[in-house]
Design a protein that fits this description.
single chain, 345 residues, alpha+beta, D-amino Acid Aminotransferase, Chain A, domain 1, OB fold (Dihydrolipoamide Acetyltransferase, E2P), 6-stranded antiparallel beta sheet, 30% strand
């Protein structure tokens, strides 16, 4: 089951959950057989042997659990370490599993320990089953119950902490069944951030007569100019007009730390031609996550900043905000969920 992206969270008969910054995973157990499945249906157990081992030690002999694989580091999640797990060498995977062990944060149950399918049950019933399942069987730190609440005040406190461990907040219809492959029963909201970036180059669109994407750079502490990602969310008319303006700025590449165009995991190993620009134009963009010093996804252009000097646009803007997050509730073994506490209070 997936969630559709919205700007605001709904209210009413909904359950709020943290949206973790990790890999979605459905865990299956049937006796001695353990399987971890990614969102795309690919097997994950060889990349997360410590999670497969932890699940094999649960006293429940069968189940299907839905959750998120994360790699905790202090009060945040290390997505870069998570990415390192998808490696062909089993020896490296074992080393990373020992050095940076993962955690499986469980937020739904689809089949219980008795083999009963819960897919058609409403979320409020599944959550009760999951909380009971967690109380009886979750004993290891590597398998945790993900917090949930029906209290909007608790949800707002979580939303303020986005940037340390969370990807956002998810709201799920308490009366909805588990709708596999659909986005009808859940909404997700991400708390976006902004950064002022220097345009260091561009790629042409497919027609060759307009901008395909703008290539963004930031200055580091030593003055080096580092490629950090791209933006392309402009209208066709804006892209055509902008191309004429950028012709006058074409020149040698200003990137000195890392430049676009090389093969990477972001472009699936493909080289892509780009046209360098003199670092004169500044644009403000909206983004969600940073990974390896780069915007993990494409950014949204907001406005040009002629009032901002390019050298003022530094990598300091990409530093992760600090602060407490709901992740501490899941890691410290607090099975008493915020929702339960709010109801008792």
């Amino acid at each position: 089951m997936d969630a559709r992206l919205e700007r605001e969270l709904p209210t009413g008969a909904v359950q709020y959950e943290p949206k973790w910054d990790g890999f979605r995973c459905v865990a299956f157990r049937d006796g001695a057989q353990i399987a971890l499945q990614s969102k795309s249906g690919q097997p994950l157990e060889r990349y997360f042997p410590e999670i497969a081992d932890a699940l094999s030690h649960l006293e429940a002999a069968q189940f299907v659990l839905d959750g998120e694989l994360v790699v905790p580091f202090k009060d945040r999640l290390d997505f870069d370490q998570l990415l390192q797990r998808i490696h062909p060498a089993a020896s490296r995977v074992r080393m990373l599993a020992q050095t940076f062990p993962a955690t499986f944060l469980v937020f739904d149950i689809l089949v219980d320990e008795n083999g009963r399918a819960l897919l058609k049950e409403p979320l409020r019933v599944r959550r009760e089953h999951l909380e009971d399942f967690a109380r009886r069987f979750f004993r290891r730190k590597s398998v945790r119950l993900s917090p949930a609440t029906t209290d909007p005040a608790v949800m707002k406190r979580w939303l303020k902490s986005v940037g340390s461990a969370l990807d956002g907040i998810i709201a799920k219809d308490l009366d909805a069944r588990y709708a596999g492959g659909e986005r009808t029963a859940a909404v997700k909201v991400k708390k976006m951030r902004t950064a002022d970036c220097v345009i260091g180059g561009y790629r042409l669109g497919k027609d060759g007569r307009s901008i395909g994407s703008l290539l963004l750079g930031l200055y580091d502490e030593s003055g080096g100019f580092d490629y950090v990602g791209f933006t392309s969310g402009m209208t066709a008319t804006e892209k055509r007009h902008l191309l004429k303006e950028l012709h006058d700025l074409e020149g040698p590449s200003a990137f000195t730390v890392r430049a676009p165009g090389g093969a990477s995991r972001w472009n699936r190993g493909k080289e892509s031609r780009w046209i360098p620009l003199l670092p004169k134009l500044v644009i403000e963009v909206e983004f969600d996550h940073v990974s390896g010093g780069r915007f993990r996804h494409g950014t949204k252009p907001l406005r040009f900043r002629p009032d901002k000097a390019p050298e003022q646009c530094t990598t300091h803007q990409l530093q992760q905000p600090r602060g407490k997050s709901p992740f501490t509730l899941a890691v410290t073994g607090a099975s008493a969920l915020p929702r339960q506490a709010a109801e008792r209070d």
